[in-house]
Amino acid sequence: MKTACLSFLTLFLTLAILLPDTLAHPRDDAKARLSIGSAMEVIYSPDGSLIAAASSAGISIYHGHSGKKLYMLTGHVDTVNSVCFSPDGRTIVSGGFDKTVRLWEANTGQHLKTFIGHIEAVNSVCYSPDGKTIASAGQDNDVWLWDADTGQHLKTFVGHTNDINSVCFSPNGAIVATASGDYMDSQDHTVRLWDADTGKHLKTLTGHTWAVFSVCFSPDGKTIASASGDETVRLWDATTGKHLYTLDKSHKSAVNSVCFSPDGKIIATASGMLIDEHSPESDDNKIRLWDAATGQHLRTLIGHSVWVNSVCFSPDGETIASASSDGTIRLWDVE
After folding, report:
1. Is the pLDDT of residue 304 over 60?
2. 42 vs 215: CA distance, rounded Å
3. Which of 155, 172, 181, 256 has its CA 20 to 30 A from that of 216?
4. Cα(264)–Cα(223) distance, rounded to whole angstroms?
5. What's the CA gap between 192 and 7, in Å, rounded?
């Protein structure tokens, strides 16, 4: 019996040594891993010196190069869904499940203003390119524009019939793009374009078959990219609204975030979706890089253990930051 036990132990130890390292240590391509609560969005400051991350724990500010955590912005009383730096990098705007939009001083974390008006959760916030206007959108299906200095409500864009998950300005500030849809019952799975000055609805981009979770303009303003729960990313002509092409269906789950590199040559996408509300597991959970001109898949970044909610490039285009519900922000080399 003792001999049999020793033989089994010897076999077990031999197998443990010979087992592929990936079984003991899951693959992780990231160069840095920053711990946080369930991370909803991540963004670099315009000069790349800071990283801001919105999460269930609040807003965390990190050193843009070392990844060292610097301080927290506290004030929201529920999960923060979105965060954005002003074009000059001096202030940060945030929005969350507490239905508020808040303004902060970037270097000190001091709370400056609270914008109140939304009647449901705020899913997305952004600055206009000139820094004078803030756009916010969320689960009340409307887009609100605010004066960034005074907090005064300027106008409301009405038209979507589902949650608005993403809002952004065109590089010249003339157009606001919005993405809509609901995980459970997506009837309005569209991208809409609005005149930023008048609030007039300009175009509706149709083609996605499920909720659209993210929308962005290329740096030159000529192209719009949209990411959807239908597992696709679509590219559109920003002037005509014409569908240009769809990235091949490499993602095997909802695509939650899309962004262009600063030079417009690469598109980054992030995916994953909760499979069961009683289980933390999800599928895919990967970041993919694409050639923006051809749509060719370039590289897959693996490391997050559950769905990835947000992805962005550093201003120099050399690093990608991602935010995941696995409780981490990860930094990746582009090359």
Report:
1. yes
2. 15
3. 155
4. 10
5. 68
pLDDT tens figures, 218-271: 999 999 999 999 999 999 999 999 999 999 777 778 899 999 999 999 999 998
DSSP letter, residue 56: T
Residue 251: count of CB within 10 angstroms of its CB? 26
- Using CA atoms, how far apart are residues 134 and 169, in angstroms rounded to an integer? 10
Q: Determine the Cα–Cα distance for residues 305 and 21; give it in Å rounded to an integer.
A: 17
Q: In what order do the strands lie in the sheet with 153-157?
A: 122-127, 133-138, 143-147, 153-157
pTM of the model: 0.87
- For residues 98 and 280, the model is more confident at 98
Report pLDDT for 248. 76
290: amino acid identity, one letter: W
Phi/psi for 4 (5° steps) reads -65, -40
pLDDT of 186 reads: 64
Q: Which two tokens stand for residue 326?
A: 């696995």
Give me the pLDDT at residue 279, please. Answer: 42
| pLDDT for 283 | 66
Over range 51-69, report the average pLDDT.
94
Judge whether 287 and 308 are in contact, CB under 8 Å: yes
Tokens standing for residue 266: 């690469």
Pair 308, 302: CB distance under 8 Å? no
DSSP E strands in 163-296: the ranges are 164-169, 175-180, 191-195, 201-205, 212-217, 223-228, 233-237, 243-246, 255-260, 266-271, 273-276, 279-283, 287-291
